[in-house]
């Protein structure tokens, strides 16, 4: 059996992201939240729940309070942030920096970033992940906020539509990607294609409801829950975006789509053999996801 000190060392050498597409089960088997607790260190972990994206923070907290209590977590507390002054409070930031698990709820990702982006609390989350190997989780808006480029707003109907989607700065736990949530349920393929069309440097990640992409820094990735993760890669794309009118549908050729259903797992550490049957562009993308320094 692994000792507590060994487990702590393993967490500190890695750290995890649990990126949830929203609508995760909080009442029955709680598979995703259970995995988040496990990666945070188990029921004895110190978990904080950041409700800054929500307009109803106390109600949102009560939902997760019940869920984490049901999972046996004895130390879990809310972080209600409604202003940048609060997010720059050093005592509060230290609480976050010392947490084993940090979970960001749903709501509005623009509200979340306007409140905590670039603050002491933001920096504390990065320290917790990189120095202590904490587990950072986020659902819905909290998931979108995890990347360096964040999908801020935009509504697209049946096909890509240039100029209909807008990006903003995110928290930067992952780079060179844009994350969309409630993906299959809200038919957001055209929206993510629009992002990739306008920003081929970025790759799109769409996560279904009650589904999570789990990223182990320096280790691997897995998909858990009941849905799938869709990856859009436009790096080899041929398009006429530059010559297409505003709000028109562009021509997009050779956009690559990868579908990773629940149960998908790739070991990607430096000493691991390359997964069989995985094309190099996808393998390069997955290896970039797990980098300990996402800015590189």
UniProtKB/TrEMBL annotation:
<dbReference type="GO" id="GO:0006508">
    <property type="term" value="P:proteolysis"/>
</dbReference>
<dbReference type="InterPro" id="IPR005320">
    <property type="entry name" value="Peptidase_S51"/>
</dbReference>
<keyword id="KW-0645">Protease</keyword>
<comment type="function">
    <text>Exopeptidase that catalyzes the hydrolytic cleavage of multi-L-arginyl-poly-L-aspartic acid (cyanophycin; a water-insoluble reserve polymer) into aspartate-arginine dipeptides.</text>
</comment>
<dbReference type="GO" id="GO:0008241">
    <property type="term" value="F:peptidyl-dipeptidase activity"/>
</dbReference>
<feature type="active site" description="Charge relay system">
    <location>
        <position position="182"/>
    </location>
</feature>
<dbReference type="Pfam" id="PF03575">
    <property type="entry name" value="Peptidase_S51"/>
</dbReference>
<comment type="similarity">
    <text>Belongs to the peptidase S51 family.</text>
</comment>
<dbReference type="GO" id="GO:0004180">
    <property type="term" value="F:carboxypeptidase activity"/>
</dbReference>
<keyword id="KW-0720">Serine protease</keyword>
<feature type="active site" description="Charge relay system">
    <location>
        <position position="209"/>
    </location>
</feature>
<dbReference type="GO" id="GO:0008236">
    <property type="term" value="F:serine-type peptidase activity"/>
</dbReference>
<dbReference type="InterPro" id="IPR029062">
    <property type="entry name" value="Class_I_gatase-like"/>
</dbReference>
<feature type="region of interest" description="Disordered">
    <location>
        <begin position="1"/>
        <end position="23"/>
    </location>
</feature>
<dbReference type="InterPro" id="IPR011811">
    <property type="entry name" value="Peptidase_S51_cyanophycinase"/>
</dbReference>
<keyword id="KW-0378">Hydrolase</keyword>
<feature type="active site" description="Charge relay system">
    <location>
        <position position="140"/>
    </location>
</feature>
<protein>
    <recommendedName>
        <fullName>Cyanophycinase</fullName>
        <ecNumber>3.4.15.6</ecNumber>
    </recommendedName>
</protein>
<keyword id="KW-0121">Carboxypeptidase</keyword>
């Amino acid at each position: 059996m692994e000792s507590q000190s060994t487990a702590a060392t393993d967490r500190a050498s890695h750290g995890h992201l649990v990126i949830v597409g929203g609508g995760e089960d909080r009442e029955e088997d709680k598979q995703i939240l259970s995995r988040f607790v496990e990666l945070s260190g188990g029921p004895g972990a110190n978990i904080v729940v950041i409700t800054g994206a929500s307009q109803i923070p106390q109600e949102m907290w009560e939902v997760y309070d019940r869920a984490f209590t049901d999972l046996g977590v004895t130390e879990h507390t809310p972080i209600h942030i409604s202003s940048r002054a609060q997010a720059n409070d050093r005592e509060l930031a230290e609480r976050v920096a010392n947490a084993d698990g940090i979970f960001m709820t749903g709501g509005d990702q623009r509200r979340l970033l306007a409140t905590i982006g670039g603050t002491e609390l933001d920096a504390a989350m990065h320290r917790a992940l990189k120095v202590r190997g904490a587990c950072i989780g986020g659902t819905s808006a909290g998931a979108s906020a995890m990347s360096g480029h964040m999908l801020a707003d935009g509504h697209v109907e049946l096909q890509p539509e240039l100029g209909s989607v807008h990006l903003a700065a995110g928290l930067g736990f992952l780079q060179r990607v844009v994350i969309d949530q409630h993906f299959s349920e809200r038919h957001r393929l055209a929206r993510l294609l629009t992002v990739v069309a306008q920003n081929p440097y970025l790759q799109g990640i769409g996560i279904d409801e009650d589904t999570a992409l789990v990223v182990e820094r320096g280790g691997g990735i897995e998909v858990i829950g009941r849905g799938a993760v869709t990856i859009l890669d436009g790096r080899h794309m041929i398009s006429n975006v530059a010559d297409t009118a505003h709000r028109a549908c562009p021509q997009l050729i050779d956009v690559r789509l990868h579908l990773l259903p629940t149960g998908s797992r790739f070991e990607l550490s430096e000493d691991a053999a390359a997964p069989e049957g995985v094309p190099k562009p996808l393998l390069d993308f997955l290896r970039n996801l797990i980098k300990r320094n996402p800015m590189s």
